[in-house]
Amino acid sequence: MSLEDCKKLYINETLRLMKEQPDGFCRVTFDSVLCWPPVMLDSVVIVPCFSELNDVFYDDSQNASRYCLANGTWSRPNYSLCEPLVYSDGEPEVRIYLIGYFLSLITLSVAMAIFVYFKELHCLRNTIHKNLMWSYILTYCCWIMTLLMLYYGSNMSVICNFTVILLHYFHSTTFFWMFVEGRCDCFP
């Protein structure tokens, strides 16, 4: 936006104030951040904060203010309520995800050990269960590897891309094994 854009935006209000305020008023101005509308002398104008400035996002639910002095000039704008949005780095969420996935890996590994150790559990139905569990184990391993590479800033983009491809592949295989479980005629 420019000063010319501001003037066009507030042309009707400027014309109205020219008629109503023969003693003068504060004219439209643009301070390279916000467009300030024309107002009567000795008054405050409040406008919403900008949503972005220099690639930094701000809380636009707050307001900026500026005072129109009695001599028709503007005071300095007050941007104190226009604060940058602070995003969490997500570390607590990442820890919760990792704990959940590691717990799932542990329980799936215990279940796989039980299926492998006890020979009397070997049957077609349990083989399908084992394949489903393997697909979950591999999905979780790829997910953890992808998360660690992305979160801790690894510069191995080829390995990261390959891991994401594997993650999607193993994730889709879990659905295929679920379909096999649902379709299997081995259940009585």
UniProtKB/TrEMBL annotation:
The chain crosses the membrane at residues 96-118, 133-152, 159-180. Residues 5-86, 93-182 form the G-protein coupled receptors family 2 profile domain. The keyword Manganese does not apply. GO terms for cellular component: plasma membrane. The keyword Nuclease does not apply. It is found in: Cell membrane. It is a multi-pass membrane protein. This is Diuretic hormone receptor. It comes from Acanthoscelides obtectus.
